[in-house]
Design goal:
The protein has helices at residues 45-63, 79-98, 108-115, 123-133, 142-171; strands spanning 5-11, 16-25, 28-38, 67-71, 102-106. By secondary structure, the chain is α/β, with parallel strands linked by helices. Strands 3-2-1-4-5 form a 5-stranded mixed β-sheet. Helix 1 (45-63) runs parallel beside helix 2, helix 3 packs across helix 5 and helix 4 packs across helix 5 (142-171). It is globular.
């Protein structure tokens, strides 16, 4: 996959969804932008999902990534919190897909291992390694740093992820 490719990583959350846009050309990674989309805690669940949708749609429209990556949901002990995260994750999958962008999904441990070298890294370690790998990124929140880590993971694994997605689509 030669050439410069723009990728977006999305770290879904109902309160705060992180996003990070990078470009990759072979092993070279270039920071483009990062930030967060937030929802109003006092709003209804439906209204909060609309806020996340509209915010991510604006990011996609502005930065026009060619591919997207979203972190897989882990299951909490709190089923209600897991369900709410699942709703936010649905928006994170829907927005790029509705724009015709292929979406890959990565487990949290793979993201940590790809960026830090261990699958049990903490948020501070992820943020530190993102700053090293993308020196101009200056992610202001852990959510944005996590989204950049997801984008970095996709840059490293995108060939395999895209082939798996193509095989899955062909099987359907």
């Amino acid at each position: 996959m030669p050439g410069l490719v723009r990728l977006i990583g999305i770290d879904p959350g109902l309160r705060c969804t992180g996003w990070g846009v990078i470009e990759c050309e072979g092993p070279r990674l270039i920071h483009v932008a990062n930030g967060t989309v937030t929802s109003t805690q006092q709003a209804s669940l439906a209204e909060r999902l609309v806020e996340l949708h509209d915010g991510l749609a604006a990011v996609i429209a502005e930065f026009r990534p060619a591919e997207a990556a979203v972190e897989l949901t882990f299951v909490n002990k709190d089923a209600g919190a897991t369900l709410k995260l699942g709703h936010a994750r649905g928006i994170a999958l829907l927005v790029p897909a509705a724009s015709g962008i292929a979406v890959a999904e990565y487990a949290p441990n793979l993201v940590k291992k790809s960026v830090v070298g261990t699958g049990h890294a903490d948020k501070a370690q992820i943020r530190a390694m993102v700053a090293i790998l993308l020196p101009r990124s200056n992610a202001r929140s852990a959510d944005a740093a996590d989204a950049l880590a997801i984008a970095i993971t996709h840059a490293h694994h995108r060939g395999v992820a895209m082939r798996a997605e193509a095989l899955g689509a062909a099987a359907r």
